[in-house]
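Posting this for the archive.
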Amino acid sequence: MELVLIIAIFAFVTILSLLEIPKMLKKKQDRELWAFSVLLALGTVVAVLRSLDVKIPNPSDIVLWIYSPLSEIMKNLHK
């Protein structure tokens, strides 16, 4: 089943690329093309990992981990 999902993901990515990239090249939208490529690559990696049932951490957990020391400092200053 995972193989079918991965094939579907790559088919979707291929179709999307074939539709969007020529338009961007024609209009000389270099920055938009780079952003599209990076985001599409990241999305593809995440989709493939999710189809393989790999646990992906929630981005808000990383933000919480970064700001939790700051939160403790602010609580101590507020007392």
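The chain has a mean pLDDT of 92. The CA atoms of residues 23 and 45 lie 24 Å apart.
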